[in-house]
Design brief:
With 269 residues, the protein is mainly alpha-helical. It has 12 helices and 2 strands. The two termini are 20 Å apart.
């Protein structure tokens, strides 16, 4: 892989076809079609492809910037010397929005996003509905004292949008169902009150803000993991090599393979 390409924010991370063919031919020359490659041999091959430290640092920095981890990014700059491709100060607005979501203060979230760029919510009705829906969830979270306000808000803000969109209507009905349970968090729709629900809102806002700023909405690491899966499948399907693959990307553990009728142990990379 041409590792320097990873360093450029706007260039795709890809490998020329002739380089791919060279790698495939090299594997065929060494092992032959249909061969099974032992894990120690596969690790030896992978070690030859280890990218320079500056490339790894660039991938880490890109991940931190896209995910709005300003404090960690600043510490990483000091530790690695890696220069970010965008000012770290630009991350602060997304951090502020994220903090407001986790505080449950959706009206301030909407105000903040509109201050950044009014066209974000104007051009994305799905995102605006998600925020209004989350505001209803936050009202319900506060307990029985907010039932009247919750119903009034749903009737005034959500019902008109739901009437014009069947998908919105279904989602609104799920949120309204929280009011039917004495302990909403333990109900069938209790997940709407979870941390993960707020995180979904944060992710959607982060993507929308990055897009409005003409920045990549996905970290480069995601592309590389997708590329890993694609290349593994190509090697297996086209060249018919049996080698240790990684299907569990979270653990980066090699899968078991059959070699000479025996199954190799699953090992950490």
């Amino acid at each position: 892989m041409n590792h320097d390409m990873i360093l450029e924010q706007d260039e795709p991370i890809d490998e020329p076809k002739h380089r791919q063919q060279q790698h495939c031919q090299s594997l065929l020359d060494e092992f032959g079609p249909g061969s099974s490659i032992r894990i120690q041999d596969w690790k030896r091959i992978l070690e030859k492809q280890t990218p320079p430290r500056k490339v790894i640092d660039a991938i880490v920095m890109n991940y931190l910037i896209v995910n709005g981890e300003k404090d960690v990014a600043m510490a990483f700059v000091k530790d690695s010397g890696q220069k970010p491709l965008v000012p770290l100060s630009s991350i602060q607005n997304r951090m502020d929005v994220r903090n407001l979501v986790f505080q449950g203060d959706i009206p301030k979230v909407i105000e903040k996003v509109n201050c950044l760029n009014p066209s974000i919510l104007e051009s994305e009705p799905r995102l605006y509905f998600m925020l209004q829906q989350q505001h209803l969830i936050e009202l319900i979270r506060q307990g029985p004292d907010k039932i009247s306000e919750s119903l009034s808000f749903a009737r005034r803000e959500l019902a008109p949008m739901a009437a014009a969109n069947e998908e919105f209507l279904e989602e609104m009905e799920q949120v309204m169902a929280l009011l039917a349970f004495p302990e909403p968090s333990k109900s069938a729709v209790g997940h709407l009150l979870s941390h993960e629900q707020r995180q979904k809102v944060v992710s959607a806002l982060n993507t929308a803000i990055l897009t409005s700023q003409c920045q990549s909405k996905d970290p480069r690491l995601l592309y590389l993991l997708q590329r890993l899966t694609f290349v593994q499948n190509q090697l297996k399907d086209r060249i018919k090599l049996n080698f240790p693959t990684i299907s569990d990307l979270a653990s980066a553990a090699f899968d078991k393979i059959e070699i000479g009728g025996k199954t190799s142990e699953k090992k950490k990379k």
